[in-house]
Fold each of these.
Amino acid sequence: MKLSLKFQLVCIYSVLLIVTPTVALAIDVYDFETQEQEALYQQLAKELRCLVCQNQNLADSDAGLAKDLKNQVAEFVIAGQEAETIKQYMVDRYGDFVTYDPPMNASTLFLWFSPLLVFLIGGVMLFFNIRKKHHE
Amino acid sequence: MKKIWVALIPLAVFIILVALLFVNLSTHNEVLPSPLIGKPIPAFEHQTLYSNQTITHEDFKGEPWLLNVFGSWCPSCQYEHPLVTALANSGRIKVIGLNWKDEASDADQWLKRWGNPYHEILVDYEGDTAINLGVYGAPETFLIDATGTIVYKISGVLTQKNISQELLPLIDKISL
């Protein structure tokens, strides 16, 4: 059975729709004075996590609290606050979990260094394997 | 023989991973530790819902109190309401309500329907104090001591269990 061209196209578009990553842009309108401010706002809305729907960032989330937090971020950005100050404001209230860029401390050491650890284990294994092959 | 053991390593790693994920399934929760425990309660100034006053964080100094974040739009708040009422009626602690992002008329209707257990109700219409308290979902309950320091926080509903095992022992401790 030959599938119609229309059906094939529908299939292709459906697949594209599924695999295309959604572009996370907060489209709320704030009166930013400069483009830098707007860029900073967009950056922060992406880096800060929505606490209600915990696997979304603020930009993606439509939750009431996310809106409040976006308003707060926009307000700070317009007032000329630095990115670090704004992030610290959120961390002071909601903890490290609020940022998608976790700080390095005792509880996140493993998170930060586990890739290095895996790399080292791999290196050691490789080293011994090569040495063994060399001896044979 | 040694080769077989080496070949089993990936399988072992996989099994450990699955075991960890499985354990996390039952123990995982979305409750976040609050960075505000042990810190003074953030400054606030709110109108009250009924008594037509403006109340600040200073007004509660001198005795421990419980701040219960609620809204008429929040089904879980209604669920925990009988327990909040029982706790307030027990006289063991002063219970203050923070009416979070709610219309006054809705809050009033809700309280008339289910009863008002609160000593005083602060109106946080904009949600400013909620943000300062790191609230991310109602209900949330904060225990504050006589000096205005946040001692404990329960995110989510109060239950018989967390009241008797977590809140009451702490209340007794800070009421001394």
Amino acid sequence: MTMTSTTDTAQEAPAPVNTEHLAAQRRQRLLAWIMPVIAMTLAIGAWEFWVWFNEIPHYLIPAPSRIFTTLMVDGPSLMQSAWFTIRLTFFSLLLAIIGGVFLGALFALSRPIEMSLFPFAVILQVTPVVAIAPLILIYVHSTFTALLICAWIVAFFPILSNTVIGLRSADHNLRDLFTLYRATPWQRLRYLLAPSALPYFMAALKVAGGLALIGAVVAEFVAGATGANTGLASRIIESSFRNEIPRMFAALVLVSLLGVIIFLMTSLASKLALGHWHESEIRREQ
Amino acid sequence: MTRPLIRMDRVRKEFGKTVLAVEDMTLTINEGDFISLLGPSGCGKSTALRMIAGLLPITAGTVTITPPEQKGEQDLGFVFQEPTLMPWATVYNNVWLPLRLAGTDRAEADERVRAALVEVGLSKFEKSYPRALSGGMKMRVSIARAMVTRPRILLMDEPFAALDEMTRMKLNNDVMRLAAEHRLTVVFVTHSVFESVYLSNRIVVMAARPGRVAADLEVAAPWPRDDSFRTSTDYVEECRRVSATLKGTLHDDDIDH
């Protein structure tokens, strides 16, 4: 004999489809794309017109068209710098993830370790990276490594703290269930703690992605425009010394673009990891 | 059939130094019993259940469970008041969990998970995530998960308290049927007189402050029962008797909450 269910399985008879509602939904989706594009275009157009109308010289405020031309002309050399910043950002983010998750897991497993190491993490976090960077640049010979350390310091903390909170957030009844079934510590981590921590980790990743870029740029500023391998921030300083305002803007555009790409990537990662179950990523059907 | 399975001998539970949750509870639960622990909130019935499950350290006394003939098998199933499902896992994976943790062979586990889902009528929903299910369905997943290891003992901690009346009645029948078919020994915690009389052949009435056994009543009506029992005079009589016993254990200040 089996339990048959008539009340629980929702099997509704086909009813007339609410076409108006569906059309409204389609409109909503379309608007979500069109509105930002229109707003952006208008803003850039207004900028262009304003510069042209007032005949503002390009060394004061360059028109968007001018910035675009600069991007094209200086493209190869700017792209080289962009590549430097991209590597710096992603490498520091990767190390922040590895370090944050590893240390977070260690903290979650052992209170004494947390108690002894957490102050160091807090000190690293609260000391402004601009203030530490000059020292790191003195002690570390490779500029790239020094910059990497600076960016890492900034991106590391949110991942660490969220991983710790996440690993501790598992439902207490589920914990009891795992105890009842005599789960090994590894099984507990793999099947219970890690999935429970995932939403927290993903939230931290979104923050850390942006912070890694900020850390990289700030560190480059402190390091200044030295050496052959320089990132976008160094190019901004260098252009500023030479009064090449359009190139400053061009480099700035690339930095923003990089930030947007990082944001989209981390959002996508979060959607992929949590989309099928977690409230934060589920779109409610209406 | 009356072999003792679970023995609680002067079991005592203190939380901190001031709260005595369970005072020297002695209780023998026989194989095949469907036993309800009935009492007001704070009488220590859930605490007692958790101590039987080994989820709470015991302050004094002992809980002994007669070991099963097959060693190493998971002997206990536990159903919590909330469905307690993993939201990130499908219905199938939720039910699979106990076997996965025990390292059961994949093919064997698959067979058992499917069988358990058939038994609670959720085969069609094995790929669903818990959030897509109703409260009653979630509870049935939880029951399937408890049953998948084929335990001898099923411990249930007010499992249907949060469900609506219709769903609760249906799940009561389902649990009774499962218990009869698999010859389970069930310890069922509830605060509902009607539920305890309908389900069990033995009702242990507990009193609060400190939590202790106040009465141990037998419900003589034939078991397993069906809905016709709910309208019988026997049922009404038993409910009246159990209610009176329960009322006798209450303190004056218990009534208002």
